[in-house]
Amino acid sequence: MDISVVIPALNEADSLRELYERIDGALGPLGREWEVIFIDDGSTDSSMDVLRALHEQNKNVTVLVFGRNLGKSAALSVGFKEAAGDVVFTMDADLQDDPAELPGMLEVIESGYDVVSGWKKERKDPLSKRLPSKLYNAVTSKLSGVGIHDMNCGLKAYRGQVVKTIKVYGELHRYTPVLAQWAGFTVTEVAVKHHARQYGHSKFGAERFVRGFFDLLTVLFLRRYVTRPLHLFGMLGALLFSGGFLAGLYLTVLKVMGQAIGRRPLLTLAILLMVVGVQFISLGLLGEMVANLRGNDISYPVRERLGRKDGGLGDNS
Fold first, then answer.
1. Strand 61-65, strand 304-306: pairing
2. Nearest to 146 by CA among 219, 78, 97, 215
């Protein structure tokens, strides 16, 4: 298999058939073997009827179905496991990503890069979305050290090895370029067309930026301390305990000199700092235990599958 296209879908019945036809128009002329993997993320509209028909009519369509909405990261995770392509594309199902960009991104991958991230340079979204997104991307790029203008763009291309290496869970789908670069893969971005939404409505509100901030903290923690949590929590605990200990030592000297210390706020603070310091150190030790015990991949239940499990479905010519 040369190319896999992984597409999470949630209540996008009106756009799915047109999306497949546009992908066919973009990849068909290349003369490559390709497949499309749709992940129905708990849709409540007629998306499954459309996907079932697409699978029955096209041998290169695989459909994976969640029993309920598990989120985009979960959908991408199972899609990455299913994908058999040497190159794996991801894109959204709402037709805002343009399948005509796929051949150009494929050329960039074949020029030597491991990950190509789309950049919606002229974004067809309202200002209320563009401004927070611009700030979010600037902060993420600065803190992560990965010079990507548009972390949230759903249109991306990966070498197959990349999607089998990085772990996507929670809501870390925003940071796949960051995870890939930190894993040693080469990352670049290209400007891509972005279209206004034709059908339905966005599944993401303003709260995604709050969640995105916490996800960024998660990524930064995974980068620096996932295999050595005691280095972070132990350091904080040692600083807090040391501050409390020094304050307590100072009060002890005053007590020896005959001064009353029982009602001094500093005494309460000293005790609090030492207790919290011990708790942080204990948390770090527990984290070390978890880090040594971890190893089982997070799995997501697929309620239904349409298509061969190995993903080797051939082309549609």
1. antiparallel
2. 219
* 262 pLDDT above the threshold of 60: yes
Is pLDDT of 42 > 80? yes
Structural contact between residues 47 and 93, judged by C-beta atoms closer than 8 angstroms: no
Give the tens place of pLDDT for each residue, 81-132: 999 999 999 999 999 999 999 999 999 999 999 999 999 888 766 666 777 7
What is the arithmetic mean of pLDDT over 29-38? 96
**Residue 228 vs residues 42, 101, 225, 235: alpha-carbon distances, Å:** 37, 41, 5, 11
Locate tokens 């700030």: which residue?
A: 135
Tell me the three-class secondary structure of the chain, residue by residue. CCEEEEEEECCCHHHHHHHHHHHHHHHHHHCCCEEEEEEECCCCCCHHHHHHHHHHHCCCEEEEECCCCCCHHHHHHHHHHHCCCCEEEECCCCCCECHHHHHHHHHHHHCCCCEEEEECCCCCCCHHHHHHHHHHHHHHHHHHCCCCCCCCCCCEEEEHHHHHHCCCCCCHHHHHHHHHHHCCCCEEEEECCECCCCCCCCCCCCHHHHHHHHHHHHHHHHHHHCCCHHHHHHHHHHHHHHHHHHHHHHHHHHHHCCCCCCCCHHHHHHHHHHHHHHHHHHHHHHHHHHHHHCCCCCCCCCCEEECCCCCCCCCCC
What is the per-residue pLDDT for 314?
Answer: 42
